[in-house]
Amino acid sequence: MPNLSLAAIVKHCDQILRTSEIGDYDGxxxxxxxxxxxxxxxxxxxxxxxxxxxxxxxAAKADLLIVHHxxxxxxxxxxxxxxxxxxxxxxxxxxxxxSSHLPLDAHPKLGNNAQLAAALGLKKLKPFFPSHGQDxxxxxxxKISRAELAQRLERALGxxxxxxxxxxxxxxxxxxxxxxxxxxxxQAASEGVDTFITGEGPHxxxxxxxxxxxxxxxxxxxxxxxxxxxALAAELAKKFKLPWKFLDHPTGL
Length: 253
Description:
Shape: elongated
Number of strands: 13
Strand content: 25-35%
CATH class of the largest domain: Alpha Beta
CATH architecture of the largest domain: 3-Layer(aba) Sandwich
Structural class: alpha/beta
Number of helices: 10
Order of helices and strands: EHEEEHEHEHHEEHEEHEHEHHE
Strand order of the largest sheet: 7-8-10-11-12-9
């Protein structure tokens, strides 16, 4: 089985994702979050770093775990209870963790938004939706019915999206920001989209979407963000000739 340098893989990830250049939330802590003894033989990828997914990675015999939501979104101390169990398992099983949040969302090929747009068959893509100093989403000039777009989302993600039919039946300018951008419908509408695809949003956004004349698709925070970690892991596996596996731990949210 190949045995590759963790440092080389991390350097490659940081370069292609422009990790040091992309702004993000403080809790994201993009990059290598937990190191191991220095080598990698098998990669696992999952959306969220948690005790449950770490156990799945150990069962898969991985020594590098690629995640979208890392270890430090909530206060990381004290290291007691399940937090202690988590770090203990990482150390005892020589499991490194690499996390990429907005850098992975924004990547023009491997990113969640680019990958979902491709899965939906959307073309003529342009960056939109600024966040933390850069555009992280994509918008597409197309002509597709709202019902057809809902069907494409269901096929791509395996579950029916929640649809807010606030706009016209024919969608012409479609914006995508995976994850939890539902609170930012005004921002999306201000950039000219008549249809907005994201993962989740609060109850009050239904009336807001109607007021804005905006079609909104809530397709699941977890579901819309499975694409990026899969694409990144597959890219690493190809470049470094390593086996990889996606660890599905859906939240239903």
